[in-house]
Structures are given as structure tokens and as C-alpha cells.
Specification:
Elements lengths: L5 E9 L5 E9 L8 E10 L2 H8 L8 E2 L3 E9 L11 E4 L9 H4 L26 E5 L3 E3 L12 H14 L6 E5 L3 H10 L6 E5 L3 H9 L4 E3 L6 H8 L5 E6 L4 H7 L3 E9 L12 H5 L4 E4 L5 H12 L9 E6 L3 H11 L4 E5 L1
Parallel strand pairs: 9-10, 9-12, 10-11, 12-13, 13-14, 15-16
Antiparallel strand pairs: 1-2, 1-4, 3-5, 3-7, 3-16, 5-6, 6-8
This protein binds zinc ion (2 copies).
Length: about 350
């Protein structure tokens, strides 16, 4: 029998009142128990807003699970059935485990998998990347080119989300795009949209640091809804027409309402930010009469991951501006989560 070594991991401990504690503790290294599994040495894992939500109880997670779902690594060991991957290969992880045989999976919408809805995500419901090692099924892994930068590889997951959103928004060169919310995901979506020529990009954000960052990443204008009249500003910036594409990267009642006040005829509104408590009233005729679309963007499909890998690998997206800081796993709670709470970051990358 194989003797497992020890490793430090960030483990979630659920409390009975909802939410819980994330603790750094020494646990057994995982070992391969199935023929189709692969063991990786985690090289980088991004901190996500979801990790904070799990701690506060705003997002469900399983008890006793190693968190971290935005990760990539190098293969250390492969199960008996693995033919196409070798020790030393670089891989990015798709943390969303789908079944492959439900109606949605078979229709190409693996992001809507019925099995996934039961809670399967690595780093949320099964062990994830805030540790030196992780054992995953072959299906969760995407092989990366040999020269791929492994810190940037942690961006594959959030960039895949942004790719999916971008594709659904169907952004054209003649479009004026407004992004509501310049948190990490709003900023990453902005960066992806800016890889193609568009007419104008407007960021709408209350936080000063984030508005500055939005401008640095290429937004043409940044509006502060606390001090400016968003409707009036957008009216002036769009020649009175409104924005053609609006990304709601917040997902609150007020932000979707805001979108319906700044939309052009024929506009596409993509709801990206998630808040299960939000409710809003819409006037259907405003959608019908002006042929607008409101649609949701939820995680991504395999093609989005391939596109995200290509976007980073080709250098078409300057990812250096998206990585605010690299930290050691030991500093996850005191430093990483602290910077996240202060909102002064795009991505913090943990190097376990
Ligand atoms: Zn995430
Ligand atoms: Zn499925």
C-alpha cells in the first residue's frame, strides 16, 4: 500500500448556522484510487469571490472540502487507464464535473448538466486547488502547451467564464458596450471584450480603485453611479441611443433595472453576476417593441476553455494586468482574503 505524505491545505469547515471557517491545516496527500484519475502538483490557484461567499454562507459548499476552483498544475502520476497524458504535462482544470449523458450534456450544454446541479464542483463540493496536490478525473483536465506560464494558467477558469459571456453577447465592431460592475469578473470580461475592436466601452462602478482599473484595462469611460446620473451619462456617450450590449456583472435588482434604463433598441443584456435573492420588475413591451434580448451566462463549455487557453497562450490578452499579486498558500487567509475584502485587486494567485 502506498503511504501518503502530508500537505498544507485550505479546508472549509461548515458551521450549523450557515457559512463556516476556512482553516489551513496539515492533511494527508491525496492518492489515486481510480484508473481514470490523475494526480497533479498544483502550481497556481486563483482566489474567487465565491471563496469569500462560501465562508460567509452566501454560497453553498461541502463540509471538510479543500477550497480553490481556479487552478492548474503539472502531472505527477496517472491512473492505469490514462493513455494520453504523461508525468510532467501541464494541465488546466475544468472544476465543473458534468455527467456527459443527461439531456443538457448531450445537447452541448454541459454547463447546465442536471448532475452538476447536485453540487459537484472541485474546490466547492469536492477537493480543489488550495493545496500542493489534487487528484482529479481525466475528464477535468485540459492539456496546456509546453511553454505555458503556470501562474497565468490559473486564469484559464475565470477567462473561460468571460469567453462564454462574450460569445453570448455577440459583440460587433459597431457596438457600444456597457459593463455594470468592475469587480474581478467585470474587469476580466472587459479585457476579453477589448481583444476585439468595438466602438466604445463604458464601465459603471461605484468603487474608485475599480473604476481606475477599468480605465487602465481599456475602458473609454468610467461612470460612478454614486455621483453621476448613469442614464444621462450613457445618453450623452451614445448619441442618445443607449448601449448596444450591456453586461450585468453584479446581478442585483438595481443593476438589471439600470440596464433597462440605458439600453438601445435591439440591445443585448447579458446577466452574468449572480445573486439568488435579487428580484426585479420588467416591462415586457420594452423588450418586444424594441426587439431587445435579456439572457443569462452561466460558467462555460469546453470550447470556451480551449479559447481561453489560446487567448492566454497566444499573448493576445495581456494577462499581466489581471494578476494583482502572487501569494503563498500560508498567506491565503490573512493576506489574500484581506486584499479581496478591500476590493483592491483583480486576481490574487496562490502558489501552494
Ligand atoms: Zn470562481
Ligand atoms: Zn449532464
Amino acid at each position: 500500500m502506498e503511504i501518503a505524505g502530508k500537505m498544507i491545505a485550505a479546508v472549509f469547515h461548515k458551521s450549523s448556522s450557515g457559512g463556516g471557517d476556512i482553516k489551513l491545516e496539515e492533511i494527508d496527500e491525496p492518492i489515486i484510487t481510480k484508473k481514470d484519475q490523475v494526480k497533479i502538483r498544483v502550481m497556481a490557484c486563483g482566489i474567487c469571490g465565491t471563496d469569500l461567499k462560501i465562508a460567509s454562507g452566501a454560497h453553498p459548499a461541502n463540509d471538510n472540502i479543500i477550497l480553490g476552483h481556479e487552478f492548474a498544475g503539472i502531472i505527477e502520476e496517472v491512473g492505469q487507464d490514462i493513455r494520453d497524458l504523461q508525468i510532467g504535462d501541464k494541465v488546466a482544470v475544468d472544476p465543473n464535473e458534468y455527467c456527459g449523458y443527461c439531456t443538457y450534456c448531450r445537447s452541448g450544454y454541459t454547463n447546465l448538466c442536471e448532475y452538476m446541479a447536485t453540487g459537484t464542483t472541485f474546490g466547492i463540493f469536492q477537493h480543489g486547488g488550495f493545496a500542493k496536490h489534487c487528484v482529479l478525473p481525466r475528464n477535468a483536465l485540459f492539456k496546456l502547451p509546453r511553454e505555458f506560464n503556470m501562474t497565468k494558467a490559473a486564469l484559464v477558469e475565470p477567462l473561460s467564464c468571460a469567453m462564454h459571456c462574450h460569445n453570448l453577447a455577440d459583440v460587433k465592431e459597431s457596438d457600444i458596450v456597457a459593463i455594470i460592475g468592475a469587480g474581478p469578473m467585470g474587469l476580466i470580461i472587459e479585457s476579453v471584450i477589448k481583444t476585439h475592436p468595438i466602438k466604445k466601452l463604458i464601465s459603471i462602478e461605484t468603487d474608485d480603485w475599480r473604476r481606475e482599473k477599468a480605465l487602465e484595462l481599456g475602458a473609454d469611460h468610467a461612470i460612478n453611479p454614486l455621483t453621476q446620473d448613469v442614464g444621462e451619462e450613457i445618453f450623452n456617450l451614445t448619441g442618445g441611443n443607449g448601449a448596444d450590449v450591456i453586461i450585468d456583472a453584479v446581478g442585483a435588482s438595481e443593476t438589471l433595472e439600470m440596464a433597462t434604463k440605458i439600453w438601445s433598441y435591439g440591445a443585448r443584456v447579458v446577466c452574468f453576476g449572480q445573486d439568488t435573492r435579487a428580484e426585479t420588475l420588467l416591462r415586457p413591451n420594452e423588450i418586444v417593441r424594441y426587439q431587445r434580448k435579456i439572457l443569462g451566462s452561466y460558467i462555460y463549455n469546453s470550447k470556451d476553455i480551449l479559447d481561453a487557453i489560446d487567448l492566454i497562450g497566444s499573448g493576445r490578452l495581456d494577462t499581466s494586468k489581471l494578476i494583482t499579486k502572487e501569494i503563498k498558500l500560508e498567506n491565503l487567509l490573512l493576506e489574500g482574503f484581506q486584499i479581496m475584502k478591500e476590493k483592491k485587486c483583480v486576481k490574487i494567485i496562490v502558489k501552494p
